[in-house]
């Protein structure tokens, strides 16, 4: 029997492992199962080059729980270890067996080698007060060995009996970690970290993993049904995805994976952290913001790359040029795929725009390279629905009526087709094309694109009276005299809490509403942005809503109002006309709305 101390630079290695090395306690299962996969893959490599003799037999990994003995055992039929191997790989903590193996067998399936062999093993002490190793090497005539350590630097190493090649790690679970003596907990952890490892893994006689997930196969081998089935495997409760992109790169970096575009019908359904990062099929994290461009965080699926640098716990990404290259590659692949669908099947693209638009707009705002490509396939949907325009198509369609004095095309848009219907109808009567901009990102998108598209400006359809939407016009052909206009302005000069109201008299058409409420584009846009920007937007969010009441001097109701000698009735009629206009803008609320209803009933009772 050999006794000794584990050769580390500090006696405090175990507290460090328990507290700082691994971010989550359940990570020990991932590390130990990964090591078992490592040992199995090494055996396959050695067998393929003739260094490992004899039959490989069934290569599998078994995880066993013994609640009475309070142990978890992870067994493999891989390369195994001799006493010398244990001394080298286990007793010298910081030594990486995988690294040495790669150097020796460079060029031969090195992509199959995962993990920091020795260090990963020590994660077992996060949950154990004693760990045993039983191992038998693949080498002919090797003697099986048993290693044992109680979490101090002291260990024992001795000969033992073991019939099968491979390694068993037996963890005696400590009192603080007895949560892991639950079959449900172990099963859930195995499914989280190990569900796509390349060697069959069994727990309670059931295989818990798919060793050949879709992303590890060639795109030419897969059908649409295969991709759909894999999506169901990842997200069993989701609707079918819109489409997918299969990543398969081996130069200048290794990257495989499948990214899916999910259906997103409502902005509140948006969820990030749906892309899973793997390294040679070992689950690493679902926080992929450094690898995947921000605007594609709404995608779902899997990315697998052994070239993404990971720290020793494999839980956090480290800065590296490869990460930026991968990020750029994913952006290009997504842009190319969207352009391909748009060019080859525009109708399908348009049908999916409700979900796709979020990705495209977000990307155009945050990534100029994507913007250049997306200008070809970003589309506006006509308020009527069913008709779509690219930017160039919209410019051609609106060239004669919607170009202002500065030579800019004015994109007229609605954020709420139902609420803004009267404004939309008035704009359409003039031949204007109104498009829908009603998603979560549209307020920010409009501001961004006005800076990036130099020949375009956006105006919401209710930002001014219809005559002024394209170019401001000061002319007024009202039938009212100047004195009558002044009287009306005075009648409309009441104060409304939480609103900053400006009043003007214009000569609109006789069939236009008696009062039109409009919200100046700049301030309304700032308030819309503030509503979704959190504390930074408080300045604009707390400012009163600005509204302009345009009195239509040509509406015949004002002839009656001006002749009304009962001042009280006159003021009530005028206030109701103003409230009707404010109601169309959604600006009549609370007590003001109640007062409007009561006043309307009273006026009807009085025959007004």
From TrEMBL:
Q: Which UniProt keywords apply?
A: ATP-binding, Chaperone, Nucleotide-binding
Question: Looking at the record's lineage, which domain of life comes first?
Answer: Bacteria
Q: What Pfam families would the database entry show?
A: HATPase_c_3, HSP90
Task: Give the family from UniProt.
Answer: Belongs to the heat shock protein 90 family.
Could you tell me which NCBIfam families the record lists for this protein? PRK05218.1 (NF003555)
**What name is this protein filed under?**
Molecular chaperone HtpG
Q: Which organism is it from?
A: Pinibacter soli
